[in-house]
Amino acid sequence: MEIFIILLSGLLGGLAPSGFIVDSVAQGAIRSNLQAADVVAVRVDNTPSYQLIGGKADRVRIALRGVQPTPLLRIDTLELETDPIDVDLEQLRQGGREALAAFRQPFQGGVRLVLTEEDLNQALQSPAFAARSRGILQRIAGNFSSDPNAQFQLIDPKIDLLEGNRLRLDTQVRSMGLTATDLEQFLTPLPQRTLNQLQQSLQTPNNPQTLQTQIAQFQQLKLESLQTLLLELQQLDLPPEQQPLTQPLPPLDFPTLQTRLSALQQSLQKPDSPQKQEEIRQRAVELQPSLAEAEQFLIAVQKINPDNAEPFLSEPQQFSLSLESGIAVDSGSNVQLVDPQISVDGEPIPPFFLQGITGGIGDALDLRRLETSGVTLRLLQLEIDDREMEAAIFVRLMPPTNPAQ
Question: Which of 190, 211, 226, 251 is the most exposed place for a label (fewest CB within 10 A)?
Fold first, then answer.
């Protein structure tokens, strides 16, 4: 839903007070709401034209190429053609979670979406994907883990698109719990030195290869796992003599830190150009406050009592995971896996486990689950080859019912 709110906010929110708008103005308004876009084309049909002042339009057609609505999401092609629109402009400009309530009538339209293999692999690096993948990971890893309560994360996931509407995902899966080895590392000068080197390079970010290496080294530190463990232990109300850390932890917004690191990585991977250098400098400036938080966190961590932390540490677990499957759509709403194959450390999993895992994945891919939040999606067509994934989608956004009406 977010991408449609971004587009409409840019389009209709850019209306001049006089209500005068032309296609070129609409294109500029949409661009201002996106991270980047190679091509933006807009056509607004409305009679009479003054209805635009009130947030009404007969039809809107938008065509985007190479669009980035967020730093870690790139869409090769996005085409949208709407039915008549009636929206509260002021409320739409405010955005946020209440943006859907700005629509005076249901919003609906047709979408053509194209994602390349590179686009998909970029999206796999986002914190949003990591969060949404954990439920599926638990279904798979729970069958092989010695710890039923262990949490897992993907390491370097990679998608390969295949002919015949198939794809393959290869990744390493690692337990998120903090191990004794991890904790020992945090008590050495290495984490602080790794952070300081990255901070220094960001002052003059002229060497992309060095920055890429330093970011990768910093991301190998299990900061999130350490923060999660220490916060959980602080909630246990342990006696002072048993506390691993006797002082409150300084704040560390880890999701924001990870998002900014990933955004900088994506900028570093772009072809050389003056725009690339400016984008790298901007991402470096955005990252500095998060790294300053991490620095204070690492300083506080040096005071951990490892003996008190030892009973709460995890056993290390890591394995390779490969999933290959065809993709089909039933009735426009149920995305199904066709002839799925899953292997762990190169060994196919037993059919009994496979059926349970793929059934859970299928439930997660049921588009009807979105309808409780006012979003209806119907996948009218889906085609996958070895280069890209193309979909035709019907979307309907239903504004929430006002109880006072």
Answer: 251
Residue 262 sits at the vertex; the CA angle it makes with 220 and 161, to the nearest 5 degrees, is 100
Q: Look at the block and give the residue holding tokens 């030892």.
A: 310
If one counts every other C-beta atom within 10 angstroms of the C-beta of residue 150, the result is: 16
Q: Give the mean pLDDT of the chain.
A: 83
Mean pLDDT of 154-172: 92
Q: Are 359 and 353 in contact (CB under 8 A)?
A: no
pLDDT > 90 in the chain, percent: 34
Report the distance separating Cα 227 and Cα 245, nearest Å. Answer: 11
Q: What is the 3-state secondary structure (H, E, C) of 334-385?
A: EEEEEEEEEEECCEECCHHHHHHHHHHHHHHCEHHHHHHHCEEEEEEEEEEC
Nearest alpha carbon to residue 35 among 68, 61, 81, 84: 68
Dist. CA 225–CA 230, nearest whole Å:
9
Query: What single letter denotes the amino acid at residue 99?
Result: A
Closest CA to 140 of 165, 167, 162, 171: 171
Q: Which amino acid is at 108?
A: Q
**How far does the chain reach from its first CA to its final CA, in angstroms?**
25
Is residue 3 predicted with pLDDT exceeding 90? Answer: no
In terms of pTM, does the model score above 0.85? no
Among candidates 389, 381, 398, which has minimal Cα distance to 110?
Answer: 381
- Residue whose tokens read 């009479």: 48
pLDDT tens readout for residues 80-106: 999 998 888 777 766 555 667 888 899
Residue whose C-alpha is closest to residue 80's, from 55, 109, 106 = 109
